[in-house]
Predict the 3D structure of the following.
Amino acid sequence: MISWNTCGNRIVLVLIALFLVLNPFPHVTALQAISFNLALVLLVVLVLSRSADFTFRTPFTWILAVYLGWSFASIFWSHDRANSFHDFYTHLLNYVVLFYILVNFFNTERRFIILVKTIVISTAVFSVAAIAYFYFVQGNPLSARLLPDPEIQPNMIGIITSFATVLSLSLLFREKRLPAVMMISACFAASLAAMVLTYSRGSLVALIVSLVLLFSQNWKKLLLVMLAGTIIVSLMITLSPGFKERVVPERILQDGRVKIIYTALEIIKEHPLTGIGFGMETFRKEWNTYNSRLPQELQSRAFSHTHNFILDVLVRLGLVGLIIFSCIIGISLKTSWSLWRSGHGSFVRYWSHCSLSAFVVLLAAGMTGNIMNNHKSAVLFYVCLACTSILHSLDSSTGKESPVLTGTGEENIRQTSE
C-alpha cells in the first residue's frame, strides 16, 4: 500500500509536470494556475506534516533573495505601483516558488530526465498543433510566419521551440532504445520545423550559437551543425522570400528595435540606478513620455517591451537590478561550466553541458526577444536555474561513486569523452 508520504510527493510531481506541459500553449492561464496552486497547497501540507523533505540550499539562494528584495522595493518608487505589485506577486514570486519545487521534487537522475522529456514532448505537441492549425486548417501559405494565435507571437514560438530543440538533441544522443529514439527524433523535427516557420532571426542565431557550444568538443558534429545551419537559412529564404530582406543590414537598421533602444535609453538616463519599477506594463505606459523626446524619425507607436532582456532589467530595476540579475546568470554559467568540466559522474557532466547550452539559447534569444517579461520564456529561465541546482546537488551527493545510471533504469551512461 502506498503511503501518504509517497502519494503526496507524486501528486505534487504530476501537478508541476502538468504546469510545464501547458506552458507552450495559449489560453491555459487558468489551468496552469490551478495545477500550480494545488501543488503549492499540497506541498505546504506535506512540509508541515513532515512528509516531505524541503531544502532552500541551492547555488542561487542568496542571490534570488536579494533579487526578490530589490524587485519588491521597486514597487515603492514604481511609476505604476499597482502593476509592479501585481507582477511581483503573480509572476516573480511564483517563478521562485516554481524553482524551489523543481529543485526539491525533480532531484534524482530519473526525475531530472522526466523534467527534460516533459518540456521536449509538450513543445513538440504544441509545434505539430500550431503548424497543422495555421497552415492546413486556416490555409495560410508557408511563406507566412507561424502565428496560430495572437496570444503567442512568432518570436516567442521561436524561443520556446529552439530551447526544446536543444533539449531533444541532448536526449537523442544519450538514448539507445529504438522506440525512444524514434519518439525523440519526431519531437526534434517538430520543434525545429516550428522554429524555422517563425522566420525569427534571433531564434535562428540563438539556436546556432547554442549548438556550437553543445558540439564544441566534437568537430565532426560541429561541421554538421554549420552545414545544417546553412541548409536551414536557405530553406527559410526559399519558403519565405521576405526573410531574405529581413536579414540585410539596411532592413535591420530600420527595425523597430532601434526606436525601442533609444526610447529605453531615455528612461535609463533619467532613472539609472533604480529604474521605473518592476511592472511589465510600465514600459508601454511610459512610452509616449520618453519617445516624444526623440527626433521625429525615431518616434513611433508604443511597444510593449524592450526586445532585449538587458534593457528590460535596466528599465525596470535600474543598474542595481541589472547587477543583481547578472549575478544570477553568472552563478548559473559558472556552476554549469564547472560541473561540465569537473563534475563527479558522467550524468552530471553531460547534462550540465546540455543545460548550459539550453541556457545559452535563452540568453542569446533574449538579446533580441522577450524572455523575462513573458510568462512562457520566464518559466524556461527558472527551469534552467533549477536544472543547474539539481545537477549541483547530484554532484555533491554522488562524489566519486560509480557507476552512474542514466535515469531510465535500464543502462549505464557511457562516459562523455567525445
Q: What stands out?
A: The chain is about 70% helix and 0% strand. The CA atoms of residues 59 and 389 lie 6 Å apart.
